[in-house]
Amino acid sequence: MKLSVLAAAAGIALSSTMAIAEPVNLTLSGGNPGGLWSLLGAGIDRATKVDDANSVVTYQATGGGFANIGLLGANRTDLGLMHDAEAKIALQGGEPFKAPIENLQAIGYLYNWAPMHFFLERSVAEKYGIDSLDDIAGSGAPLRIGINRSGNITSNVALMMLEEAGVTEESLDKAGGQFVRAGANEQADLIQDGRLDLITNGIFVNHSSFRAVDQNSDVVLLTVPAEIIEATNAAFGTGTMTIPGGSYSNQSADVASVALGAILVATDAMPDDVAASLATSLVNNIDEVRAVHSSMKELTPELLATPSVLDFHPAAAEVYRKAGLIK
C-alpha cells in the first residue's frame, strides 16, 4: 500500500502528520562497494536530497554488518546497515563481540526477504534419499558442504540450522564429509566442478549466484522442517519466508525457510531532529530506495516501520506513529 493511500484511509493528509525533513549530513557504513548495500546507501542519500538538496548521506564501504556494529558501538559512524541476526548477536554480546552493544537504535527495516537456501546435487539426493535438511544426519552421506566464510552472518545461521538437523563437523567427519568455507560465487563454482555436494547461503530468491547454480548444476532445493525454522528464528531474530514453487528448475513445491532481513541503524546519540528528518525523508521518498535494484521493489512504508530485534530511535518511531504506520 502506498503511503498516500494509507494516509487517505486514516483521513489525514501526509503533510499534516509528519514534520518537514530538515537537511542532514551523515555517514552510512554499509558493506562491499558495488553490492546491494552500497546501492541502498545511494538510495537513502537520494531520498534525503528530494526533501533538501543540501542533505548528504555519505556511503562508507566496510566489512559488513558486524563491522558496522563495532563502528556504531564506538560512535565512529552515524548510521550502519546490518542483518537482524547480526543485531541480535550484538545485543547478546555474542561472538565476535566481547560485551553487549547497547546503544543501537533502528531507523527502519529495509528488507526481510533473504531466505536461507540449501542446494544439494540431485544425484546425491537420490542416492541417499535426502529431501529435507533433517534427512542428512541419518543418511550416512559423505557430504562436502559449502558454508560462507567466518564473519558472514549466513555462516552462523547455516551452521545452526544444520546442527539443529543433527549435522555437525564431527558427524560429517565420521561420514567422510566436511565443511568447506567459501563465498557465494565460489560455492557456485565448486558445486559446478564437482568439489561440493551441498551449498548454503541466505540471499534473495533467484539471486545471480543461485541462478548460476540452477543453470549450470543439477541440484534440488532441500526443505527445512518447521521446528528448525522456529529454533533458528528464536536464536537470531530472523523471520520465515516461503520460496515459491518453480523458483528453480527442480523445485515444484513451495519451500519455507529462515529469512534474513536488513535494518538501517543509528545510535542513541543521534539527535532527535536528525533521526526524525531521516525517517521523514525515507517515508516521503521511499521510491528513491525502491528504485536502486529490482530486489527492493517490495519495500513499503509499512515494512520500513516494522519492529525488529532493535527498538526504534524514539524520533523515528514518532514519525511512523504520526504517519499511522505504528500505534
Automatic annotation (TrEMBL):
<feature type="signal peptide">
    <location>
        <begin position="1"/>
        <end position="21"/>
    </location>
</feature>
<dbReference type="Pfam" id="PF16868">
    <property type="entry name" value="NMT1_3"/>
</dbReference>
<keyword id="KW-0732">Signal</keyword>
<protein>
    <recommendedName>
        <fullName>TRAP transporter solute receptor, TAXI family</fullName>
    </recommendedName>
</protein>
<dbReference type="InterPro" id="IPR011852">
    <property type="entry name" value="TRAP_TAXI"/>
</dbReference>
